[in-house]
Amino acid sequence: MFSEYDVIVVGAGHAGCEAAVAAANMSCKTLLVTMNMQTIAQMSCNPAMGGVAKGQIVREVDALGGYSGIVTDTTMVQFRMLNRSKGPAMWSPRAQSDRALFARKWRTMLEENPFIDFWQDMVKSLLVKEGRVCGVVTGMGLEIRSKTVVLTNGTFLNGLIHIGEKQFGGGRAGESAAKGITEQLVSLGFEAGRMKTGTPPRLDGRTIDYSKTEIQYGDENPGKFSYTNTVVPDKQLCCHISYTNPQVHEILKTGFDRSPMFAGRIQGLGPRYCPSIEDKIDRFSERDRHQLFIEPEGWDTHEIYLNGFSSSLPEEVQYKALRLIPGLENVKMFRPGYAIEYDYFPPTQLSLSLETHLVKGLFFAGQINGTTGYEEAACQGFMAGWNAALQCKEQEPVILSRAQAYIGVLIDDLVNKGTEEPYRMFTSRAEYRILLRQDNADIRLTKLAAEKGMNPMDSRISRVNDKLKAVEQIRQSLSSCLASPTEVNGFLEKLSSSPIDQKTKYLQLLTRPDINLKDLMLLNPILKEEFSVFDDEILESAEINIKYEGYIKREQEMVEKMQRLESVKLPAQFDYHKIAALSNEAKTKLSKVRPLTIGQAGRISGVSPADVSVLLVFLGR
Length: 621
What we know:
By secondary structure, this protein is of the alpha+beta class. The protein is globular.
């Protein structure tokens, strides 16, 4: 019935979809196995993509050839660029999506790819022979052969849903959990753990009094995620903001004795940066209110996602508390919030390619690695699918460095440091974030993807080359064009900026923090006419490169210093216990993680600078 596949992807969430795309765009015969074809790319939690650091990840996935950015652009209901008041390293795109359209668009794009096949079934075990995966066994007893397998099981591995004192098996509301894989992997020597996440109640928007809430508009000139020619909707929906209050908190506290979190029925750790409402009240007892975001689920539905109110309290407690929130006095619930507990595998058991150490050809991506968030899952899925495809072609894996992408930071953190709570990406995790901006992901990554065989990339490469030429042209024009005092001093005076007393390059004026490129275009008709052919993205990229040139150069110098350690390779199968001068903790951690380079070894938790020096001496450096 089935011929052998190059790559089998288990799970069709955000990680699984991107894994299938990456493998298929490498011209590998790919099978996407999911328990339910109707929930491909389901937005299980909030109907949004992007956010702080997450938006950069979506743009990186798009620059590499993934689909998340395209799907988000064509299904968004609102767009906002976050952190505009801060420097460009912090600017992060975020979009609300139409939940139903998002999943439908993803499925359409997957079905249009001739290298992707689909199969609806549960995978209950892996076929493993002599330490190498060679396929999967489904719930119907079918054996499907493949060269590689990518596991993207999300919250389905022995998933357990909690609502108050009730608990039942499930990977998502209304869907059953996946059984068998955890037990098999543990029998093969893998270490497993438990984590938890949660989701808020879904509300009937027809029963909300929006006049009692704060309105939150999208950007007047909305941006987008994809570097391709996607067209974003010409209208946007509004979100709204409300707040809890002491009365809400008192009602919620009446359910604490039945809370699965406080009663100890949930063993897994939840995300620190996205706690449940009961966790917020308990941990931040000094606060008398917490902000809530009332977010629409789509164009043609009244269903509302109450961001900030994740809860696993009994449904009647949730309901009573909701009705004390301004604007929600008469609200009706579509369904209550719940917590879900699931299996994960500490990611220190992986190489930087996301292939497992114990079983060759087996890759993990997404929540199975202890991460949280669609974006974190999507980028892992893409990299795992890409590297699985490269292995099928007997080529070296692609490993992005911490200076190349937020994706590189995320995977490096997971593999070298592990995680004991759901890992979420922040800009603060990246030491080179001035280099890793959302505006230059295509310049950083698109050519690399093309060089490594990702298809189709021709039009993307052409667009990157045009962008680089345009940015350089803008720079040259600003450098050669001189501003006289009579032309610009009036404008500078209005900004309380120092006047000039002689002709000055427009390039030099642009380096002032209170002046932007569009100001200069208004001051000089020649520049305005020349630059009018460029879109806002190119103008913005040129301005950032000029304004922050000194900072960018400084970070590049830091990267070059660090790359010296990254170039020093470590033996793949070396016995670290033979080096007596290493600390015992370093011997254990190095043996477990198996770093590829001295640089990677130095980032492993428990490996000290002294241990790194010992390794350098051992290698004759």
